[in-house]
Amino acid sequence: MTRTRTAAIAALAISSALVLAACGGGSSSDSSASGDSNLSGAVRIDGSSTVYPLTALAAEDFMAANPGVQVTVGSSGTGGGFEKFCRGETDANDASRSIKEEEAAACEAAGIQYGELQVAVDALTVVVNKENTWATCLTVEELAAIWAPGSTVNNWNQVRADFPDVPLQLFGAGTDSGTFDYFTDAINGEEGASRTDYTPTEDDNVTVQGVSGSQGGLGYFGFTYFEENADKLTAVQIDSGAGCVAPSVETAQDGTYTPLSRPLFIYPSKQALAKPEVKAFFDFYVANDATIAADALFIPLNEEQKAKLQADYAALAGS
């Protein structure tokens, strides 16, 4: 797979729900040729815009080998996706955080059983405009000062005295996003605690456009979206007390990129896995997760995490 193909898949997240058409081209996965021509039906997935490109690529490759199955992938945000999932409207939910207690209660009330499968690792990335040559590294305390509820920090020179007199323009995740939940918890110490006078969105491409179009722009989203737009944005190093650390595959996997490295999940329902087409899709996804993650420019699981994914899926699917 080329970077161009991956970028095209990521750009499709601008749609809140996309039906991916089956294609007959080359597949990123080495087991895609073993599809079942007799398999038919539909698989419905929604949720995190961060995880979207990963699941969208899995869906594309799966449908190339199984043209009778239609896999639809939406990107309404982790929270919005869980609302649909716990009403039984989807077969699985992409999530950039673990399920909340109230979401689990809603699923339980509806009789929906599910499993949590970690499919990749993320380095939640703080980004600035390419013309920003001063904010190469920010401390967690400085980020908290910017993003705290009721913050009046509106200029870069309020962040640090030697920063220039440039107005801050803030862009970030919407409140239905798991990225919002994770970022606010990691930076402000409480999930959902954030200033409200910024541009919120469930579509990370809006943040790309906003930050790249404003010299004083600052935003945050998943690492894969930064990699796709590294020509337009600069990633900020984070200092959580042990020095400045840049987001990367290595720092996310070894845990040195704190506190913004995080797991990424998909939650299939046990009821949905009873359907052959859904089971076949998740068999494919789990078996090829490392290849799909690498091709979609995600940070793949380490060996311990891979083993856990296999064990968790086997327990959920009863295999």
Give the structure's gist in a few sentences.
The protein has 319 residues and is of the alpha/beta class. The chain has 2 domains: 3-121 and 263-317, D-Maltodextrin-Binding Protein, domain 2, CATH 3.40.190.10; 125-259, Periplasmic binding protein-like II (D-Maltodextrin-Binding Protein, domain 2, 3-Layer(aba) Sandwich), CATH 3.40.190. The chain has helices spanning 3-11, 52-65, 78-85, 101-109, 140-147, 156-159, 178-188, 204-212, 223-228, 249-254, 276-287, 289-295, 303-317, and strands at 17-19, 41-47, 69-74, 92-95, 117-123, 125-129, 137-139, 169-173, 199-201, 217-221, 233-235, 237-239, 244-245, 261-268.
**Shape field:** elongated
Number of E-type strands: 14
Number of domains: 2
> Approximately what portion of the residues adopt beta-strand conformation?
15-25%
- How far the N terminus sits from the C terminus, by CA atoms, comes to 31 Å
| pLDDT averaged residue by residue | 89
Report the radius of gyration as a whole number of Å: 20 Å
Helix and strand sequence: HEEHEHEHEEEHHEHEHEHEEEHEHHH
**Main sheet, how many strands, which sense, barrel?**
6 strands, mixed
Spatial strand sequence of the major β-sheet? 1-3-2-4-14-5
Please identify the top-level CATH class of the largest domain.
Alpha Beta
Q: Which fold name corresponds to the CATH topology of the largest domain?
A: D-Maltodextrin-Binding Protein, domain 2
Specify the CATH architecture of the largest domain.
3-Layer(aba) Sandwich
